[in-house]
## 1
Amino acid sequence: MPETMKAFRLIEWERPPELVEVPVPDPGPGEVVLKVGGAGACHSDLHIMEWPEGQMPWKTPFTLGHENAGWVAKVGAGVEGFAEGDAVIAYGPWGCGQCRACRLSEENYCERQDEIGSLGGGLGLDGGMAEYMLVPSPRLLVPLGDLDPRDAAPLTDAALTPYHAIKRSLHLLVPGSTAVVIGVGGLGHLAVQILKALSGARIVAVDLAADKRELAREAGADEAFEPGDEAIEAVRELTGGRGAELVLDMVGAGQTIALAQQVARVKGDLTLVGLGGGSLEYGWFTMPYECEVASTYWGSGIELMEVLDLARSGAIRVEQERASLDDAAETYERLSRGEIRGRAVVCPNG
Ligand code: NAD
Ligand code: ZN
Ligand code: ZN
């Protein structure tokens, strides 16, 4: 392995990330270094780039990229079960590995996250937008088998996050039911495919952009609408006036939360995934009766394995474009302008 490498790093809060030269990590005991195949460019990184200092208890600088897959490059002392060259995907939320949640494979809800002070590689620690990446434990790696790490990388967030959000509502999504997906970007186009694969629900997509509505239809949505009164009317009509069993808000802006509230049904689920900064006006007069509201964060390690099996079966596929590490900054600019179809994946090693 070389001694230094290029990495796309957040140097300071509220300052655009930069491509800089840093040392290649060397694995300590129990650690693994990956040669990065792909690192997905998630919209959360755009939020991170805007957050002021103090929003998160993370120290700068750190390398971005929390949606990572690659090949094992070097293992530290005591690591068993992985060898150089193995294709692996990294589970992204790095918990303590020992609390009750972590032992249930739900490191996304680690009980010691506050003490740890970071959420994982790319989220306070060095992530995958570099040629190599340190993973602190083999517990966080899942073998990819014959899936290419560049194709697979977004599965660990853009697919895992909606998979978890959908799975908790599956009991509602019987044939004849309706699921609404608001925002058909990286996460949303996979949400549509996961709904199609797992449930009997009619799928209604909502997005501001015509090309994203088109992508939604290609991904399996039965209907696709612009946000607004027409979408609300259409959902009412399609559901005999009842509303949707599940509304997944992948944007999380005030407007989309209000829309979600208006298309959800009595005894339905309103699930908030997007970090758009909006909030819900919750009151006796504003919600359908017994409609359950939840925000979700990422998914469990076991769910990641289920997502990989779904991808292997061909039921879900990441619509993606690849970029080089040199183009990382431009890729995020294009993401912020809504110009990415599906997910952009930065491939630092070509
Ligand atoms: P993206 O940029 O790929 O997609 C966003 C989509 O929403 C685009 O198609 C855009 O046209 C559409 N959109 C934007 N505003 C809209 C509006 N007002 N009405 C309808 N559609 C609108 O983003 P992404 O990477 O899929 O991430 C989506 C959101 O989910 C982000 O806020 C991100 O931070 C968040 N996220 C949350 C989790 C979690 O665990 N909760 C995990 C990953 C990402
Ligand atoms: Zn993400
Ligand atoms: Zn834990």
## 2
Amino acid sequence: MNDIMVLAQDVKVALEAGTPVVALESTIITHGMPYPKNLETAQAVEAEIRAAGAVPATMTAMGGKIRIGLEATDLEALAQAKDVMKVSRADLAVALATGAVGATTVAATMICAAMVGIKVFATGGIGGVHQGAEDSFDISADLRELAETPVTVVAAGAKAILDLPKTLETLETLGVPVIAYGQDAFPAFWSRDSGLPAPLRLDHPAEIAAAHRTRQALGLPGGQLVTNPIPEADELSRDMLSPLIAQAQAEADAAGVTGKAVTPFLLQRLFELTEGRTLAANIALVKNNARLGAAIAKELAAP
Ligand code: PSU
Ligand code: MN
């Protein structure tokens, strides 16, 4: 395994010393945001984690290796690279065997984090059950990963482009704890409140860390999903977004977009339809999640 995993020096030192590390995904950089905002965001998120006293570990597949923690120059190259492979659980081994440049999704990032003992991962939103999944069967591998891999994932809920009730039901079936941070409602990515109650609520990073440890102590597999509402100043209203989401979804259906392409297509169309407002909100919520992720990682590292 050591042949495949390449740890950045600061990540290696932190893991050996047991000091806090926060994993970060790279699909959000290559498929979730346009250049140069994607690079600025990735850099700002890493800076938030460092400022909070933890070490960021951005994951990618490159040259047959899983890179855990990226050098600044590699991050710049990745943010501008074309035709990067979107790597989820199903793709990871092929991406490594062929030496492709691959960006890790939530699922693949969890796998890589768990392999090296990183307990906390901060991102924007997880994948979930897509609208029309009763016909398309489009359910993100992120959900099953949460049921299997012991990482606490901090996200701003699931994207409002998904079928949120079905996403919550699926997480419940899979036995994934869905915890809202500091409120009762399940957040909907760009908006603080999805209109659905979250199954669980915790108000402090120390409680989230205790729940993570207790799950391990019980021998239950899988992680937990911590949903952190976007800061009030940055949220977009559900009423403004709903018709635009419906429009983007109708366009995706009409264009026959399927599989891995669905999430990037919808995000890009909403960016255009809102004149960039979804992107500004996305950046704010990722930074907010990085701060909470670092706080949880610090609690988990505390003796
Ligand atoms: N959040 C974003 N942008 C993204 C994603 C999440 O703001 O691009 C990515 C994540 O990597 C997530 C993936 O794991 O979308 C889900 O894709 P799919 O639905 O194909 O599993
Ligand atoms: Mn999918």
